[in-house]
Design brief:
The protein is an all-alpha fold and 136 residues long. 73% of the residues lie in helices and 0% in strands.
């Protein structure tokens, strides 16, 4: 691919008579020769990037990750609020549903490792864990 591109550029230069031109300035001839003889960049070596530019890129990456994390947490919080609101309304207006869910809710609250947190969670939801339902 590279060779084909070089050949195309040489054909275009020849059509424009670039090879017939006389360059009177020795410094210009030397600069052109050096540019033509320069080795292509090694793909294994990353291009030189100024520290300032690299710092800006790292800042942009960090800000994008922070924004993504913030958005994910906001979506997660919204999902919990919606599900919690649904369950509260079902517990209050559907005693049969509350009776079915009570043992599952109790088992879920027992999963926490910290006994203080577990007791606090049970206290917070005590109304639904002890509420009388029809048929009990």
């Amino acid at each position: 691919m590279r060779r084909a591109g070089e050949e195309r550029l040489i054909r275009i230069a020849a059509q424009l008579n670039f090879f017939e031109a006389v360059v009177p300035n020795a410094a210009l001839v030397e600069a052109l020769s050096a540019a033509m003889l320069r080795q292509p960049r090694d793909p294994a070596r990353p291009p030189k990037v100024s520290l300032n530019k690299l710092g800006k890129l790292n800042d942009r990456i960090r800000m994008a990750r922070t924004r993504q994390t913030r958005e994910e947490r906001a979506r997660d919080a919204r999902r919990k609020i919606l599900l919690g609101s649904f369950l509260i309304s079902e517990f209050e207006y559907d005693p049969v549903f509350l009776a079915r869910m009570r043992s599952k809710l109790s088992d879920f609250l027992d999963l926490h490792r910290d006994p203080n947190v577990r007791a606090g969670n049970r206290e917070l939801l005590a109304d639904w864990l002890t509420k009388e339902t029809p048929g009990e």
